[in-house]
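Hi R.,

As promised on Friday, here is the backbone we talked about, encoded as structure tokens. Could you run it through your design pipeline when you get a chance and send me back a sequence?
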């Protein structure tokens, strides 16, 4: 055998050794391989192709030798080189083809969707019970011609107390009862502050309700939380009397709890109203009888009445503080808490439930 032929044999041998290493893994490990491993193999195979059939490969060097072989042996040598080249190319092509189909299969596998699996139902959220209650009350008052007033939760002492005719020495001003910021502002302890803001901003006559958060330094328990919600109502016009107040509150509560609902006022005291009253309404659970299912009604504790809030005729000093002529104008105001109302309506024995954001609780108000 000529030297050239031996050279070619060597090239073939080297290729086969290297190819075996690779094709061994191509064929046997193949089955369990993931997509990225298969793709890596494809890259290796490509490199092998370049190395053994590319321009700089020993094979292409051997092809150049053909012309140098003695003429009588040239044809045979040429054929031999060709056949080795073909063998190499065929092997690589075979491996490539099967690798390609394997990769295809792996890709399909990965993208497979089982359309028979039941879908996951989206769980849309819903409004908080306090929001639902607030909206219901807002709707009623809006239908009676009231505007909704929104205002700040951090107030000066003036708006939280002074303008509301709350005297200098009133216990509510104590830092035991009211939260103060380090620079002396108060977190409003009642939505009555909005009475002042609304009269300053809108002037009179006006009819507004002001829902919002209020803050008091209470230790949380079943009936207290340091933050809760109130709704304040204010109506100022010429000739407004206590009868308008009673009529408005009664009408609102009838629309809330049914036509038969009764309202009663008990004399009380608030610095910002004169006269002042607390208002109760007949229990919606026992229809004011105090008895429910042959026992004492749990909602009104047998009294037949539910205490809800405070109200009264706006104190002349409050009107004066807002630049309103109290001889020409008069008004009424009322205020109540939403958490208590909500707790009664849903028989909750702990208002803290409304702030814990436990979905098992909240889901019941869908
Ligand atoms: N601000 C009072 C409170 O937080 C409730 C209240 C009483 C509001 C009488 C009023 C009112 O507007 O006239 O207890």
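Update: got your reply. Pasting your designed sequence below so it's all in one thread:
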């Amino acid at each position: 055998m000529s030297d050239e032929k031996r050279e070619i044999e060597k090239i073939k041998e080297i290729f086969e050794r290297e190819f075996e290493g690779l094709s061994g893994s191509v064929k046997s490990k193949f089955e369990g391989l993931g997509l990225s491993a298969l793709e890596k193999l494809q890259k290796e195979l490509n490199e092998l192709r370049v190395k053994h059939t590319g321009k700089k490969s020993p094979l292409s060097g051997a092809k150049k030798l053909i012309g140098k072989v003695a003429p009588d042996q040239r044809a045979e040598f040429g054929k031999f080189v060709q056949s080795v080249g073909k063998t190499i190319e065929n092997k690589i092509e075979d491996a490539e083809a099967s690798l390609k189909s394997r990769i295809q299969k792996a890709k399909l596998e990965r993208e497979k969707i089982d359309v028979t699996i039941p879908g996951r139902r989206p769980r849309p959220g819903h409004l908080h019970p306090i929001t639902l209650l607030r909206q219901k009350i807002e709707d009623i008052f809006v239908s009676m011609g009231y505007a909704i007033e929104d205002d700040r939760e951090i107030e000066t002492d003036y708006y939280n107390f002074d303008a509301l005719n709350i005297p200098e020495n009133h216990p509510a001003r104590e830092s035991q009862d009211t939260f103060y910021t380090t620079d002396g502002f108060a977190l409003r302890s009642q939505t009555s502050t909005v009475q002042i803001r609304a009269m300053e901003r809108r002037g009179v006559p006006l009819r507004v309700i002001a829902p919002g958060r209020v803050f008091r330094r209470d230790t949380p328990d079943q009936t207290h939380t340091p933050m809760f919600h109130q709704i304040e109502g204010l109506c100022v016009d010429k000739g407004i009397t206590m009868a308008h107040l009673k009529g408005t509150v009664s009408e609102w509560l009838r629309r809330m709890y049914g036509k038969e609902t009764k309202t009663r006022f008990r004399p009380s005291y608030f610095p910002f109203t004169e006269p002042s009253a607390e208002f109760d309404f007949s229990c919606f659970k026992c229809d004011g009888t105090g008895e429910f299912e042959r026992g004492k009604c749990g909602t009104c504790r047998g009294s037949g009445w539910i205490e809800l809030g405070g109200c009264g005729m706006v104190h002349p000093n409050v009107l004066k503080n807002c630049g309103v002529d109290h001889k020409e104008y008069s008004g009424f105001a009322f205020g109540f808490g939403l958490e208590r109302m909500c707790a009664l309506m849903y028989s909750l024995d702990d208002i803290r439930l409304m702030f814990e954001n436990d979905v098992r609780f909240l889901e019941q108000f869908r």
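One thing I noticed while checking it: The longest helix spans residues 71-110.

Thanks again,
M.
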